[in-house]
Amino acid sequence: MSYYKIIKATVLALSLLFLNNSVYAQNILSDFSYNTKDVDSIRAELDKGATFTAFKDNSGLIGTTIGSKPTSTNSDAKFQLSIMQRFTNSNLLWNSHFFFQLTVSTFLNVFEPSFPLHDMSINPGFGFNKYLFKDGKYVGQGYVMLEHESNGFDSIQSRSWNKISAAATVQMTRNWEFQAKGWIPIVDGRYSQDILQYMGLFYVGSTFSTNNKRLNLSVMLTPTYRKRLGINSQCELNFRVMKKQPVYAIIQYYNGYGENLLDYNIYKSRLRIGFAFKPRDFNRF
Q1: Is 177 left (phi over 0), alpha (psi -120 to 50) or beta?
Q2: What is the pLDDT of residues 235-254, one digit of tens each?
């Protein structure tokens, strides 16, 4: 078996394993009353939650290119595994806690023989996360993180960069959630020196949810600049299909550059459908 096939088989096996178990490792917020003005009590209750949780969505999506006839070469499947391990309670600097996260994304040409792996992203990071409060209510989370991202390939297919990032997700109203993330890049990849022109320096996003949180619409926008201003966008409509578990049916549309590392400088317009296990507290794009 070739080195390439070993990588593909290992990533798929790990993704399926963690995806299967991630539902039971969600950060399930307790029934503690968050209307109290005692922020320390809320923080202590949050610290009692699971230390091994989902960081971003754990998902499986399949789709094709918009604007042209679907073929085996312009259609694919995207799988994402994202987990977080919290190592401390929120008693560090500024009442933060130390954590490690790992997000792995794979893009497979599932309509071609043997389902070849087209690209992958391995994104580990560690940093400090802080619960956010307003008027004695738990309204969001913010973090600073040192992260690395690469696709694990060699030669001219190698893509790699590092970031010092800061992000926050805040519940603005009962129905609206806002999030933003910015980063200071450290580009070390020989074949991805211009990656910032396609990936940008920050993104902003928002999610609208119905009162019962069953139906959600999210939009993420990433400004870029080469010869002129551009926008990478991702829109998602999801519906919660299980009451006791955070399982969602998803329709997702991506338009722009930088969806994956290998083809970061190639424009894509992809519509995908699938399922995701989402974090129970706040979204992270």
Answers
A1: beta
A2: 999 999 987 788 999 999 99
